[in-house]
Amino acid sequence: MTALDISESGSVAFDPAPEVAATAAAPARDFSWRRFAVRIGRGVLSAAITLAVVIGAWLLFLKAFHVSSFIGKTPLDVWRYTFSSSQAASNRTALLNESGTTLRDAFLGLGAGTVAAVLCAISFNLWQSAASAFMPMAMVLRSVPLVAMTPLIVGIFGRNLKAITIIAGIVTFFPTLVNVTLALKRTPRESIDLCRAYGASPAGTLWRVQIPSALPALFASLRIAAPLSLVGALLAEWLATGQGLGYKMLDAMAVSDYSGLWARVVLVTLYSALMYQLIGIVERHVLARFGSVAR
Are 267 and 78 in contact (CB under 8 A)? Predict the structure, then answer.
C-alpha cells in the first residue's frame, strides 16, 4: 500500500506506507543484530581460548616442577571441590561470602585511592608549589613496602573497614597520581592557549580541556591499579581483619586444605581479569563520549 499526496500544482506523489517503511528498516535492524551476535561470538571464542591456555599452563606448571599431588591441585580437583564433592554446597557458600568481602574491600580501596590521586593531581596542576613540595614526599612514601606500613595503619585506625580501605587505596593511589599528573601536563599547548585567548580561567581550562585529555591516562592507570587493589585487600585481610579470601587462603594452607587454597587462588585471578575487563568497558563508553577531546 502507498499514501497518495496531491500538491498545490496538481502533481501526484506517492509516499511509502508505514508497512513499507517498516519493511525497509528491517534489514538495518537485522544487520545490527548480526553485528551484535558476531561481537558476542568473538568474545566467547576469545574467552574459551584464554581459558584453554590458562588450563594448559596450569597443568604444564605442575608437571614441569614435579609438584606433589598432595599440594598441587589440578583444574579437575578445583572443580570437584567447588561443584561435585559432598561438601561442594558448603564450599561454594563459603567462597561466595569470602568473595563478597574481598571484592568490597578491593573496590573501596580502588575508589578511594583513585579519587585521592585525581584530586592531588589536579592540585599539583593548579598550584605548582604544591607539586614541588609534595610529589617528592609521595615518591618517598611509595618506596616504603606496604607490608611494613600495614601494622602502623592497623595500629592507628584499628582492624576495621577504614584501615582496609587505606591499605588497598595506597596501592591504587601512586600509579594513578603519577600518570594523571603527567597527562595533565602533556595537554596540547595550543588547546590551553585557545582557552586562555577566550578568557577561560585556569580552573575552567582544567575542566574543559585538561581533564578530558587526561582520561586515557586515567583509565590506563585504573587497569593497572584494579588487580593491585585486590592485592591490597588480600594483604589487609592477611595482616589485619582475619576475613575474606586473603585470610582463608592462610587458613586453608594451615590445615592442608590445598583444594580450597587453589580454588581461592583461581577466584582471585578471575576477579582480577573481570575488574580489568570491566574498566575497559567503562573506558570505551567514556572515551566515546569525550572522544574528540580525549584523543
Answer: no
Q: Rounded to whole angstroms, what are the CA distances from 15 to 18, 21, 27, 89, 221?
A: 9, 10, 20, 64, 55
Give the amino acid at 2. Answer: T
Q: DSSP string of 34-100?
A: HHHHHHHHHHHHHHHHHHHHHHHHHHHHHHHTT--TTT---HHHHHIIIIISTTHHHHHHHHHHHHH
**pTM for the complete prediction?**
0.77
> CATH topology for 75-294?
MetI-like fold (1.10.3720)
**Residue range 185-221, pLDDT digits in tens:** 887 777 777 777 777 777 777 777 888 888 888 998 8
The three grid cell numbers given for residue 82, joined into one nine-digit string? 567447588
Task: Determine how many CB atoms are found less than 10 A away from the CB of residue 181.
Answer: 23
Please report, for the chain, the start and end positions of each structural domain, with discontinuous segments joined by +: 15-64, 75-294
**How far apart are the C-alpha atoms of 192 and 196, rounded to whole Å?**
6
Closest CA to 51 of 72, 69, 75: 75
